[in-house]
Specification:
about 35% helix; two-stranded antiparallel sheet; single chain; about 350 residues; binds thiamine diphosphate; Rossmann fold; alpha/beta
Length: about 350
């Protein structure tokens, strides 16, 4: 069994309970967003299986919703985010519409990448979204560039959050980027979604230290390890890292320990049940972050069962509407294939 679980906060600092400032409305929104991520995932897997979605792969995030929501919730509109392949719902949480994201998945002409990609290679500078790059780890050097741009523009209150799987922390780009970010005290928050596997490679063949966040020691920066299936624990550590960055004290690593309940992508479902023990999958199913958060909310006495539907009907309706909109949207015209692939000189305006 390859699971390495460390459900504890960092050894370095006791993290404050930022969660105490969340209102009832915040808690409902966090609950809603977690369900949004779950329904988004289930819908796409289902439609892919039925042949109604024929483009690309679906990289699921079932079981990782607490990370997507707990980390992105404290971001401000003026902050930047660079999600990776497993984080499609974060594009919506940072301001893209669900319709836009679905059009991207279906590769439609009106999608952010205008049909040239069907997954996470899309961005929007006005919304503070930097597109992901397929080369694992390379979002960190890109984040360093964004952080420098913010500094040069005098936007010292903004931060950039970027995401990685634990496997990506074994790349040269990770080391070069983190070293650079730490030396220059850049306002970067690195979220490591430690879901125990990089494709079929288990954690013990990826990272030699007990915690992935131990890598932070090499850069002299804070490293937090939290239970990635507990949205409020994720939220607390992320807020601490954001506060650190906004204060000009540099980057942090927040390792969220979780489990990839599915295959690497939809094409890997059968094999993923062969390279991972069934008991391991079953154990993590029991730690599903959604029922856990619901139980917590009910235990506060602030909510009735009816106030916490599973799933919230408006979430299902929003996703259904976006799917139908994407399906009836136009495909890109062949002649557009060579458009928008090279900036002829206007440069990137900030
Ligand atoms: C530099 C590089 N090496 C290999 C790949 C191929 N690849 C794509 S996703 C993946 C696994 C990534 O694992 P991890 O970083 O743990 O993230 P996860 O997919 O588990 O969320 C691999 C090996 C790549 N995209 N980039």
């Amino acid at each position: 069994m390859s699971t390495r679980v460390k459900n504890r906060m960092t050894d370095e600092e006791k993290v404050a309970r930022y969660r105490d400032r969340l209102t009832k409305e915040d808690l409902v929104e966090i609950y809603r967003r977690m369900w949004f991520a779950r329904v988004f995932d289930e819908t796409l897997y289902d439609l892919k299986k039925k042949g109604r979605l024929r483009r690309g792969n679906v990289y699921g995030s079932r079981g990782q919703e607490a990370i997507q929501v707990g980390t992105s919730y404290p971001l401000r509109p003026t902050d930047f985010v660079s999600p990776i392949h497993r984080d499609m719902p974060i594009f919506v949480f940072k301001g893209m519409t669900t319709r836009q994201v679905m059009c991207q998945v279906w590769g439609k002409a009106n999608a952010p990448s205008r049909g040239k990609d069907s997954w996470s290679h899309m961005g929007d500078l006005k919304l503070g979204i930097i597109h992901s790059t397929s080369m694992l780890g390379s979002t960190i050097p890109v984040a360093c560039g964004v952080a420098w741009a913010l500094r040069l523009d005098g936007k010292t209150d903004s931060v950039i959050m970027t995401y990685l799987g634990e496997g990506a922390t074994a790349t040269g780009a990770f080391h070069e980027g983190m070293n650079y970010a730490a030396v220059h005290k850049l306002p970067i928050i690195l979220i490591v979604e430690n879901n125990q596997y990089a494709y079929s490679t288990p954690i013990e063949l990826e990272v030699p230290t007990p915690r992935v966040a131990d890598r932070a020691l090499g850069y002299g920066i804070p490293g937090y390890t939290v239970d990635g299936n507990d949205v409020l624990e994720v939220y607390d550590a992320t807020c601490a890292a954001i506060e650190h960055a906004r204060a000009g004290r540099g980057p942090s690593i927040v390792e969220c320990v979780t489990y990839r309940l599915q295959g690497h992508a939809d094409h890997d479902e059968t094999r993923a049940r062969q390279y991972r023990p069934v008991e391991e999958i079953e154990m993590w199913e029991k730690r599903d972050p959604l029922p856990r958060f619901r139980e917590y909310l009910l235990s506060t006495g602030l909510f009735t069962e009816e106030e916490l539907p599973t799933p919230p009907p408006d979430v299902v309706a929003e996703i259904q509407d976006a799917v139908e909109y994407a399906i009836r949207s136009p495909d890109p015209e062949p002649h557009t294939a060579l458009e928008d692939i090279y900036d002829e000189g206007a440069g990137v305006s900030r």
